[in-house]
Amino acid sequence: MTFSTLHFEGENTPRRTDRNLPLSMNSPQRSPYNSRLGLEKSTLFTNREGRSIRFYMEYSEPRRLHYKALIETHGGVLLDHSVTDCFWLSTNPLTGRRSYRVQYIDDCVRLVTLQDIRIYSHPDFNIDTNLLHRGAGDTTSGMEMDPTSVAAAVVYGDAQPNPNLSSAADLPSDFALATASTSLSPGTAPKVRTHNRFTPQKDAFILEEVRKHPRARHSHEFFRNLAKNEILKGHTGNSVRSRFRKHLEADLQYVYQQESDGNPSKDAHGNYIPTKELPQTLKNKYTAEDDYYLCTEAKKYILAKESAKDGGEGRGSGKLPELKVLLPYSFFSNLCRPDRGGQDEVADSENNPDKRNKKHIGQRHTLHSWRDRYRKFVGDGTIEKYIKSYEASENPKPLERRGVINSSSLNNMTGELREIVGSNARNREERALDEEIGQTKSSLIGVPDLNMSAGDVLESLEPIERPTMREIEEDEEIIEDIEVDDIEDIEDFQDASTQLSSIQANFEDAVNPGSQDSQSVMKYIGKGVKFEDLFTDPSVLNYDLVSKLNTALRSISDDVQELAECLEELGFKQALVEHLLYSTCCDKTRLFFLFRHIYNNLQDNLVSDGHIPVYELLQPPDEGGFWTKEQDDLLQAGRDDALEVQNKRQIRTRREFLNKL
């Protein structure tokens, strides 16, 4: 390729005015963003063949939407994903990546001609192979190519990147150069943007703090406070807790002896005293008062619902149903509200001079802990029996956990149930359920074996219309980690001695949205959704939210509870949390891309006239791995052939996801 074949445009070169390029060249590149704004599209950022020059900006860039509009209304394309033959634009230099100042776009538009992009290059940095975003890395004839030359090949219609286009001497004389004022002066160079990763120093700090407070090693509150330290700036409590549990706990080796007040003991020289005896973790046990509160509130809610079914005129029987009622998520959310009465009674006596603040009973435990308590300790007829027992006793006791299934009871189950439970669950020893209720054990009933065919799964259980959202409280009721290879999932059923038919009936009740309040199931977002239904504070929807979500997701697993807590910490409301989890099968990679897609839709709609309903803006892209209600209906009807965008693996994954829940 000779330089004479390149099409450069200088200040003296007439600008192309032919807008009648083949539709096939421009139509796929045209952004709906511009068509909504009604802006005319120029050909500034196109090559001689009418192909758009491709740029990329990270989503954390503060004026990304502005430059997206500017680039696309002048013929270029701002990509959603980085590719080899594109120019990276950024406000600040990027570590390990050649990038160019966004002023390049402003100057090209202002001067109505392409400028020498290399004058806008940020200072070079050494490649860090550990970074998420790496260099182009495309090679030609065994040589690593510069991203500039790779992009230039596309801009100027060359078939291959030109590795020789690397110095100012190689530029043709008519290539317009920007003025010296556009160069980045060393004195004003912005700080290098770095990724927030855990370092050996951070890990050592986390371990040392846990050694000082070993009883709090699983407490969410402890790690939330720990994350406020300067050394962990940029990490969330969830992130720090996950780092300790997954990567650092095995390196703990020892802790420090504890005083009765919970502080570490010191020897005569003021040094902490190490010990290899790991103490019990903090407990927040349920009291009889807590259980009475749970039962009375549940009774009021159920009777109110029964009365409403009878016309709301109080014609209900006033008696609870014989069978246990599955309460919706909203009930437990309201249970924790501080304005529901039921204050702790605190004696104002000389024995309690520092009288602790009155605290609403519902706030003693988290939403998920209350929900788990009800699920595991309340059975058929439990509510009425416990209320009577509590009111008649001078020293009432907390609720007793319903039947526990252990290895001996599993051996007595039918062969059909064995197939569902799986051999790993049959042979596993009983595990401690949690720190909050130390005397109880968790039951180990598995979901359908994921090695079974889809047909076997559907035969073993009734078809699932919508799954319930499985949420396990890890703050107050901690279940030890179980490897995926051992058991794919763990779910509690109603009774230890229940046979297969009874278990199937309970499972069907749990997943059938027709029999319970619709708020008790994980579901897609409704058509009547409004913007204020999505975030606790609308101001969180800014360019930084996508970056925060990306950082938070790196440190957690695909567990539904971890993902839900992560989203809630970032300000997502429950409706949006469930929509994101349900649409992506709790796959955190797809979840991130779906939210980034939604974020762009919301921002574009706000910038334009905002006439598109919010419901439409929340719909996932028409790509494999993202699911909608219409696709689930086809899946439920067995019409796999109609799911054109989903391949066999994605269909199998969806079925497994629904059956696990």
From TrEMBL:
Entry GO MF terms: telomeric DNA binding
Hydrolase in keyword set: no
Extent of Polar residues compositional bias: 23-33
InterPro entries linked to this entry: BRCT_dom (IPR001357), Homeodomain-like_sf (IPR009057), Rap1_C (IPR021661), Rap1_DNA-bd (IPR015280), TE2IP/Rap1 (IPR039595)
Keyword Transcription applies: yes
Gene Ontology, cellular component aspect: shelterin complex
Ranges of biased composition (kind: Basic and acidic residues): 8-19
BRCT domain span: 44-120
Keywords assigned by UniProt, alphabetized: Activator, Chromosome, DNA-binding, Nucleus, Telomere, Transcription, Transcription regulation
Biological process terms in GO annotation: protection from non-homologous end joining at telomere; telomere maintenance via telomere lengthening
Residue ranges, annotated region (Disordered): 1-33, 340-365
Lineage: superkingdom: Eukaryota
A Pfam family reported for this protein in Swiss-Prot or TrEMBL: BRCT_2
Biased composition (Basic residues): 356-365
Domain TRF2-interacting telomeric protein/Rap1 C-terminal: 567-659
Family to which this protein belongs: Belongs to the RAP1 family.
The protein's name in its UniProt record: DNA-binding protein RAP1
Organism in which the protein naturally occurs: Scheffersomyces stipitis (strain ATCC 58785 / CBS 6054 / NBRC 10063 / NRRL Y-11545) (Yeast)
